[in-house]
Specification:
This protein is α+β, with helices and mostly antiparallel strands. Helices cover about 35% and strands about 25% of the residues. It has nine helices and 16 strands. Strands 5, 6, 7, 8 and 16 form a five-stranded mixed sheet that branches. A hairpin with a 5-residue loop joins β2 and β3. α8 packs antiparallel against α9. The longest helix is centred in the middle third of the chain and has 24 residues. The protein is elongated, with a radius of gyration of 23 Å. The protein starts with 7 loop residues before the first helix and ends with a strand. The model has no long low-confidence stretch (mean pLDDT about 95).
């Protein structure tokens, strides 16, 4: 494995922890097919095809990988060889499910919750990867103002940002939102042929995968020319709401309490109805994963959890704004991996 990947010791610890969690859940074992869980456990980026590929992880005993012989190459670049895992390959005409069943001897059931707790709490190497991804996307945001010129389309800006995301070290682009003017009021707008205009508020929400596959995700809001007084005033409230939520993060606090910290600031200013989504989502190998920072989630935060803090305000047909950082829960608070200024950035126009 190259220097950007985790060493085999990291994956060995994860396999042991997953086996222990499996036993604690009263299960005989896990069968993990290609996806983020498989990447988490052995570093494999194998894809799902019609032929079965799976990690078989008994609660007690040695794990093995079941893989079609013609897909053996898909294990290269993973930690399978370094871990010394048994590889049981099969060819068309054989029954791979017998290989899985023989290793476990039981009827499989969904075991998502077993790995949920492991993936939510990041190890130091994962936190380091998230910090590098956060710094890379910060560098992209530093370049965004040069792309925001009146007469250019949102799509033009998005193309420049896509190039910058890769240029600043990401292995791939995950998503790009460039919402200008009334489009900024749509939290999930992508980008369009609308031309930027003087006076526009522009929401730029961007992210990508940074080797070894951990994601960045950060939003900043820009004003092309000086904003109107009421826009500046409402944005300042949003700024305080985002800060309040970050300040609320610490071990023992629940996810819904962090959500409430942002929502309460907006409510006090009469803006609660314009905040229409959750305050945040977990992030790691997937852009969106647990924990979710939302009302009704009484999950207590634990050091090592990583998630976004991204309150927004949206005024349909007019404008919108969002501020987003990824934070990691520490023993006494929150560590932000994004460090660009949070103020409404005014792009000067001639």
């Amino acid at each position: 494995m190259d220097s950007h990947r985790f060493d085999a010791g990291v994956y060995a610890r994860r396999l042991a922890a997953a086996a222990a969690a499996t036993a604690e859940a009263g299960l005989t074992g896990l069968v993990i097919t290609p996806g983020y869980d498989l990447r988490y456990l052995v570093g494999s980026r194998a894809q799902t095809f019609e032929r079965l590929t799976a990690l078989v992880l008994p609660a007690s005993g040695d794990p093995a990988v079941v893989v079609p012989r013609l897909e053996l190459a898909s294990l290269k670049g993973s930690a399978v060889a370094e871990l010394g895992l048994a590889v049981r390959d099969w060819v068309d005409g054989e029954d791979p499910y017998q290989l899985v069943g023989g290793a476990l001897g039981v009827l499989p059931i969904l075991a998502t919750d077993v790995l949920r707790g492991l993936r939510m709490v990041k190890e130091e190497c994962e936190i380091d990867a998230l910090r590098k991804a956060g710094a890379a996307i910060d560098r992209v945001h530093a370049r965004v103002p040069e792309f925001l010129r009146p007469g250019r389309t949102e799509a033009d800006v998005a193309a420049d940002i896509a190039e910058a995301i890769v240029a600043e070290g990401h292995s791939e682009v995950a998503f790009i939102i460039v919402g200008s003017g009334p489009h900024a009021a749509d939290p999930h707008h992508s980008h369009s042929d609308r031309e930027l205009q003087v006076g526009d508020i522009v929401v730029v929400d961007i992210g990508g995968a940074y080797d070894p596959g951990y994601h960045s995700d950060s939003t900043r809001t820009y004003s092309i020319g000086e904003p109107k007084a009421d826009v500046a005033e409402r944005y300042s409230v949003l700024h305080r709401a985002q800060r309040a939520a970050v300040d609320a993060v610490r071990p023992g606090v629940t996810a819904e309490q962090v959500d409430a910290a942002a929502r309460d600031v907006l409510a006090e200013a009469g803006l609660a109805e314009f905040f229409v989504h959750r305050t945040g989502h977990g992030i790691g190998l997937s852009v969106h994963e647990e924990p979710y920072i939302v009302a009704g989630n009484d999950l207590q935060l634990t050091a090592g959890m990583a998630f976004s803090i991204e309150p927004g305000i949206y005024f349909p047909g007019r404008w919108g704004a969002r501020i987003e950082d990824i934070v990691v829960v520490t023993e006494d608070g929150a560590l932000a991996v994004n460090n660009r200024p949070h103020e409404l950035f005014v792009v000067p126009v001639s």
